[in-house]
Amino acid sequence: MTHAVGTRDMVPGDLIPLATLKAAYEREFLGTLWTHGDSGHLTPYVCEHSHGDGLKLLQIFTINQRPNYHLVRVDSGWKSDEISDQIDNILSAIEEECGRAGAYLDQPCDRCGDTACKCGEDYSADEAFPALDDRDGCSWNVISFAEMLHTIAKRNAWPN
Ligand SMILES: [Zn+2]
């Protein structure tokens, strides 16, 4: 006889594979920060790692890479306070999965003191994406389950 390691009720999120989320959200869009002059084509990134039951979809915009964003699945039980408490861990997990933006140096850069130097002229936070540049912080919001379903349907992202 086989014993289950653990059980829980099935929830709607179980029906949405990572590939579906990627098909729905990793779409190029014309991002504009302030004016049309700073517009550029950006593609969001859906992270493979998840936290807890992974049924809540978190949209994370770093100051340096907005309006592009990472999407991370977090625990459906997390309220705003818990997400705030966990945000550093979530950012670390994004960095682990996507890398840290900036040039990799053996010694910390003389100017910025970082081994992932971002002060060089050729550095672009946009080009580095989805490698993370969270030096100046981030903001986040939760995408509701209804909105997620709507986006998946609208973009015809369900697997055939
Ligand atoms: Zn530097």
Overview of this protein structure:
By secondary structure, this protein is α+β, with helices and mostly antiparallel strands. Helices cover 26% and strands 21% of the residues. The chain has helices at residues 18-25, 80-98, 125-128, 145-154, and strands at 29-31, 40-42, 45-50, 56-62, 70-74, 103-104, 116-117, 138-143. The strands form 3 sheets. The chain has a 4-stranded mixed β-sheet with strand order 3-5-4-8, with helices on both faces. α1 crosses α4. The two termini are 36 Å apart. The model has no long low-confidence stretch (mean pLDDT 90). It binds zinc ion (ZN). Zinc ion binds next to loops.
For the sheet with most strands, the description reads:
4 strands, mixed
Rg, nearest Å: 18 Å
Mean pLDDT: 90
Estimated helix fraction: 25-40%
* Small molecules (ligands, ions, cofactors) in the structure: zinc ion
Discrete helix count: 4
Based on secondary structure, the structural category is: alpha+beta
Strand order of the biggest β-sheet: 3-5-4-8
Number of strands: 8
**How many structural domains in the coordinates?**
1
Query: Kindly, what is the distance between the CA atoms of the first and last residues, rounded to a whole number of angstroms?
Result: 36 Å
Mass-distribution shape: globular
**Low-confidence runs (pLDDT<50, min 5 residues)?**
none
Strand content: 15-25%
Element-level helix/strand string? HEEEEEHEEHEH
